[in-house]
UniProtKB/TrEMBL annotation:
Name of protein: Glycoside hydrolase family 5
Family note: Belongs to the glycosyl hydrolase 5 (cellulase A) family.
Gene Ontology terms describing biological process: cellulose catabolic process
GO molecular function: beta-glucosidase activity
Residues annotated as domain Carbohydrate binding module family: 472-571
CC terms in the record's Gene Ontology section: cell surface; extracellular region
Keyword Transport: no
Organism placement in taxonomy: Bacteria, Pseudomonadati, Bacteroidota, Chitinophagia, Chitinophagales
Amino acid sequence: MAYIRLTTLLLLLIILVRPQTRAQGFLHASGKQIVNEKGQNVLLRGVGLGGWMLQEGYMLQVNGQGMQHTIKARIADLIGEESTNAFYDAWLANHTRRIDIDSMKAWGFNSVRLPMHYALYTLPVDKEPEAGKQTWLDKGFRITDSLVAWCKANQMYLILDLHAAPGGQGNDLNISDRDPAKPSLWESEANRQKTIALWKKLAERYANEPNIGGYDILNEPNWGFEDLANDKNGLKEKGNQPLKQLMMDITKAIREADKKHLIIIEGNGWGNNYNGILPTWDNNMALSFHKYWSFNTTGSIKNILETRDKYKVPVWLGETGENSNVWFTEAVQLLEVNNIGWAWWPLKKLGNNNPMQVHSNKDYDKVLAYWGNRGPRPTAAEAYNGVMQLAAALKLENTTIKRDVLDALFRQPYSQTTIPFKANVIQNGAVVKSVDYDLGRNGAAYFDKDTADYHISNGVRGGNQGRVYRNDGVDIAADHTTDSYYVNHTEAGEWLQYTLNVVKAGHYQIKLNCNPAKEDARLSFLVNNKTAKQIAVPKANGWQALEINDIELKKGPNNLRIYIDAGDMSLGDMQFTEVK
């Protein structure tokens, strides 16, 4: 009954607020809503292009010093400055292209958040030929112009986000590419003035562009203004006056050139500490907050909901993600029932829990091994080949599109139904991989007891322990010798469901590759919701073929479930043989 009530409420919300799926004129704040020029509520469903203009070490699986400027220096140490520049040119050219934006639109996104690195638009203050003057660089503006055109062609909104401000806006160094040996944004008036000037330049350029959804003027500031030594990220900050003053000065500069665009502000402490900042100082503003690794309960967003109500200002979740599909579906349900738009993070990286997965290569792995003190220094040729292959791997056609992630974002929040993950055509000799269970929610397509990373709320980093192949709670491991995957770390009560498309009705034998970790392991097979077999799994040293005989299958779609009755085990492929 709880599910029925929630589904009814979600569907009612869609009817009432009519979230727009395409850009229709400038976005505006209207009370607690973001609306278009027709006054219609706009529910932004977007994704952030993290890693494009600004690399963060974890996206490239770089441990330790993960700021972009240190990554660049380490690459230059291996291949030289000229080759490093060639790599970064290829990176910028390949990471996001028209095909990416076209695909995002087709998948269901209606907006894009661009994390900008200031150094693509203007020189650092210590490189300016004349102190106090701003030298403008063409590259960043050209990239942004192209992205605007691609979004416009797809009727999508583009939100400009200053992710790396001059000097860096916090003590989380990676997110802003900050060099702690130089003055931060908060320690340099020149950096402050350059930040203001950059936003005025952007406003002058895009003042009349309706497909720009808004200006997210400073990403995740995290600085302890009152007690830097004990509160370096500003989580306990009470006043936030330097942050408020800078955002007000930026707003003033923008409004000198642009009266139309929505201005989005973020609080201290990675976007969530608004102490001393409100009320807003402009009549066309929205608040952004960021949410990671916490429970998806109303209580988890209670503060931002109360802030929205108190100040009558729209809110937008500018960054979230980096979790399991279960968490994604929960989060979308929570946000949309509260009429909060969102931008997932990021579109692509070396990792499993985003819409696109970028793949490494053997030579880049050698680079990572060297940087991690796990291998010898690669040759210049190996390193160059590794990073250039990595840049090529960014192209959409070379990535793996994570259909399970997209399904969790767009279909599963509003549907308990399951759909096949693979075709699983069954005829004599057919093989079905255990990892190719159906797409759907936990409890519908599968059941797993440890489904997501909630470490902010309870300290537990759950989900798929192997972090490979799929992004549900089911634990999956890679077999690098055969370039294949298998389910592992099962628990009693868990189960997996498969839709089988049977070519010929009949009786079949299933041989399931199985590797039990405990002696009392037991399985049950259910076919079309009827118990077909209960099987004891004998303890063995390694993989064994477990035979399940006389399984009756009808022609066409069949539903097969494997229940873990007892035991921790690994499950591999299933082979189907017709019994004559």
